[in-house]
Design goal:
This protein is α/β, with parallel strands linked by helices. The chain folds into two domains: 6-162, Beta Polymerase, domain 2 (2-Layer Sandwich); 228-350, no CATH class. It is built from 13 helices and eight strands. It has helices at 6-17, 19-40, 54-64, 87-100, 145-159, 167-207, 217-224, 230-240, 252-258, 264-286, 298-310, 314-326, 331-343; strands at 44-51, 78-84, 102-103, 109-110, 125-130, 137-144, 243-245, 293-295. The strands form two sheets. Strands 1, 2, 3, 4, 5 and 6 form a six-stranded mixed β-sheet that branches. It has a two-stranded parallel ribbon with strand order 7-8. The longest helix has 41 residues, at 167-207. The chain is elongated. It starts with 5 loop residues before the first helix and ends in an 8-residue tail after the last helix.
């Protein structure tokens, strides 16, 4: 590297003296960004910052040191980067950054708007920011995971070899860049559509239009929000004046599907059809005990038990139920035998 002139050496001296301040600045920037991401519920793949090394700064000054009057004119001595999962999160984080920092709009650039054929991996949003209480500006890069990965791969292939890439290989690289850009956009589009779908499901559930909603993990969670098993659980708890302890019900989806429930309407009809017998079963199970804590899953579990026994599933059907709920183990057969014996003399078994 060629020797620097006196002016550039003076900037390097400024840089060396500023090291403690740069470290403090880096930690404050990272803390502010991470806190804001947490508060806004934005999940990202990386939040990072680096201080330009003396070697890197020397190289920059050797090339264009004359354009800088002092270290304060160099905007990327401190650089921060946030890597997101989705393209639309870049704009959300940009709005967040505008609240946290003073933005130097004249020197900031949105490379996404350049639309160059070979620019996918460099389509970052670059903000030049000012943190209150510090004289230096810093650069904040916002890009997606795919953009970040592509930039790293392209840099590795294009620069580390030290050889100019032939046009045929560049053409293939650019084709891949176009595909990745489509993938990036499609991920954001799918997320938006899934969010809209969940809102529609929640609205249908609130309106009671359950036959229009297929049973799956998301829809069952929405269904559980209306607390469909609370009334039955409270009746069961009253048998022994027991406390109801919350338990996860999502694992019952496999059971409900096995019981031919394809929509939330099917689940609702299953509840109405078997809840009275499920209560009678619980009264028979708990009546001679002093159990004072029950699971919030007891109502749904007993509905499933009654359905299985009422439709001829017998002990084998009960054992399969417990295999799904508890995992395969030797105790499930004994539990099925006990449950069957508890239900044997109840009215629904005589039909």
């Amino acid at each position: 590297m060629e020797a620097l002139d006196l002016h550039c050496e003076m900037i390097l001296d400024e840089y060396r003296e500023a090291q403690p301040m740069l470290e403090r600045m880096k930690e404050e920037v990272l803390a502010l960004l991470r806190d804001a991401l947490d508060r806004n519920g934005i999940i990202v793949t990386a939040v990072e910052a680096r201080i330009k090394t003396e070697e890197s700064l020397s190289g920059k000054l050797a090339l264009k040191g004359a354009k800088y009057a002092s270290m304060e004119d160099i905007t990327d001595i401190l650089g921060a980067r946030i890597v997101t999962f989705y393209t639309d999160d870049v704009d959300r984080i940009a709005a967040m950054a505008e609240q946290l920092f003073e933005i130097d709009w004249d020197n900031s650039v949105d490379k996404r708007k350049l639309h160059q054929l070979d620019s996918f991996g460099y389509n970052s949003l670059h903000y030049i920011c000012k943190l209150p209480g510090y004289p230096l500006r810093f650069e904040l890069q916002l890009r997606t995971t795919l953009q970040h990965a592509w930039a790293a791969i392209n840099h590795d292939i294009g620069y580390k070899t030290g050889v100019e890439i032939p046009r045929e290989y560049m053409r293939r690289m650019n084709r891949l860049a176009g595909i990745l850009e489509m993938v990036d956009d499609e991920f954001s589009r799918i997320r938006a559509e899934i969010t809209d779908y969940r809102r529609r499901v929640q609205q249908l559930v609130r309106k009671g239009q359950l036959d229009d909603v297929l049973l799956d993990g998301d829809t069952f969670r929405s269904y559980l929000q209306i607390r469909p098993f609370d009334a039955l659980n409270k009746r069961i708890a009253a048998i022994n004046q027991a406390e109801i302890q919350e338990a996860p019900l999502i694992r019952y989806i496999r059971v409900l599907k096995a019981l031919k429930c394809n929509t939330l309407g099917d689940v609702s009809r299953l509840v109405k059809q078997y809840e009275e017998d499920a209560y009678l079963l619980a009264r028979h199970q708990l009546g001679n005990t002093d159990l004072d804590i029950i699971s919030s899953a007891v109502g749904l579990q007993n509905i499933c038990i009654v359905c299985i026994l009422s439709t001829g599933g017998g002990k084998i059907g009960l054992e399969r139920l417990f295999d799904v709920l508890n995992g395969h183990n030797s105790q499930n057969a004994a539990l099925a035998e006990l449950t069957y014996s508890q239900a044997l003399n109840l009215p629904f078994m005589q039909k």
